């Protein structure tokens, strides 16, 4: 009697474990997202006080140094912060990118 009850329960448990593992996927930490989640409000406060290209440069440098991020990750963290918490600073981000983004050159440009 126990055998007939336990075996189906074990199969059900095993099926749930397999389905759970398949649905869980791989969770990778994203340093830029983590920083933006934790400090977006602070980024926006500083940009409110210094809404200039030099102010944004300072924010990017501070995020890179304090967060231990690469320059690219710092840019992503600041962009995520601005987009999600203080979109009023999007024009500042656009001006920064227009000023400093690499431009294509050569025959294909």
TrEMBL record:
It comes from the Bacteria. The keyword Signal applies. This is DUF732 domain-containing protein. Residues 1-29 form the signal peptide. Keywords: Signal. It comes from Mycobacterium shimoidei.
């Amino acid at each position: 009697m126990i055998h007939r009850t336990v075996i189906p329960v074990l199969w059900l448990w095993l099926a749930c474990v397999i389905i759970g593992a398949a649905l869980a996927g791989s969770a990778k930490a994203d340093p830029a997202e983590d920083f933006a989640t934790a400090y977006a409000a602070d980024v926006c406060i500083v940009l409110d006080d210094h809404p200039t290209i030099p102010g944004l440069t300072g924010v990017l440098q501070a995020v890179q140094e304090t967060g231990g991020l690469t320059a690219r990750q710092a840019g992503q963290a600041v962009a995520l912060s601005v987009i999600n918490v203080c979109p009023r600073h999007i024009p500042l981000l656009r001006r920064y990118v227009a000023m400093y983004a690499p431009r294509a050159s050569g025959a294909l440009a």
